[in-house]
Amino acid sequence: MEPIIRLDGAGFRYDHLQERPEAEWALRGVHLQVGSGEYIAVMGPNGSGKSTLAKLLNGLLLPSEGKVWVGGLDTGLEKNHPLIRQKVGMVFQNPDNQIVGTTVKDDVAFGMENLGVPRQEMLKRIDQVLQQVGLRGREASSPHHLSGGQKQRLAIAGVMAMRPEVIIFDEATSMLDPGGRREVLDAITELHRQGTTVIHITHSVKEAFQAERVVVMADGRIEWSGAPHELFHRREKLTRWSLEVPLPLELKERLRRRGLPIRHEITGTEELVESLWKLLSRD
Ligand SMILES: Nc1ncnc2c1ncn2[C@@H]1O[C@H](COP(=O)(O)OP(=O)(O)O)[C@@H](O)[C@H]1O
Ligand SMILES: [Mg+2]
User: Fold this and answer.
1) 207 C-alpha to center of ligand 1: Å?
2) Domain 5-245: what homologous superfamily?
3) 126-164: per-residue pLDDT in tens?
4) 11 lines ligand 1 (CB under 6 A)
5) Ligand 1 proximity of 122 Cβ (cutoff 6 Å)
6) What is the pLDDT of residues 78-115, one digit of tens each?
7) What residues form the membrane-spanning segments (predicted)?
8) Burial (CB count <10 Å: 0-12, 13-18, 19+), residue 123
9) Is the CB of 47 under 6 A from ligand 1?
10) pLDDT grade, residue 62 (50/70/90)?
């Protein structure tokens, strides 16, 4: 099956239009394919090219080298942009910068209005997406009165209402408190369950474990890609990639290496304790 996203040697230089030979490449020779419905996490130090990659995926930036395909459409062709922007939605870091409406309802409607969605259909979708992100009943509220997590869920609702095939979260949890993070992560899991392709850019190893595949970027290139638990086979590189491994994950990995039957999927302290407890009570 044709992947929903394909980068063939894609690269980007911010000032390539000025043709300055000394211009730095923000992204260089990236090959990447993302399958329809896949859930990937993108990690890597600041300045490694994660946001640039995200912007190449919805045609906000055009590749300075190579090709970027979204749903079989070449992002290099201007005529494809309206369709590509409908296929790929983005949720950004700062919840306050994403508010566009004076009420929750208007805020969700904004993106659909730009797409020319008929009014009846719009009302139906608003109801549906607010239900999905748990904000139904708040239609008339001012978005500014929502908590950080609620604001991000509102941003997600606005993107979902446009029915994109892919949603990119660019550090969308980084400014939230733990409760807000949980809310947004749950919303992401639900989107994935419903078949949306998810690209989650995050600094959190714990969050990355929720994905099916992790892509690590460094210096504008893809440095490594694999299943989340395989990150531990690269532990000597974790520091270099500025990735800090949370204690329960580290502990789980050590226990597994000692041969204890603990599931890979475990990421939290409570699950780990429960799992150890069950093992102990078997004897
Ligand atoms: N608007 C811009 N103009 C010029 N250089 C930029 C711009 N945005 C990012 N860069 C540079 O491109 C590189 C990659 O940045 P970015 O994609 O934002 O990385 P990340 O999201 O991983 O932190 C960095 O060296 C950064 O300084
Ligand atoms: Mg970034």
Assistant:
1) 23
2) P-loop containing nucleotide triphosphate hydrolases (3.40.50.300)
3) 999 999 899 999 999 999 999 999 999 999 999 999 999
4) no
5) no
6) 999 999 999 999 999 998 999 999 999 999 999 999 88
7) none
8) middle
9) yes
10) very high
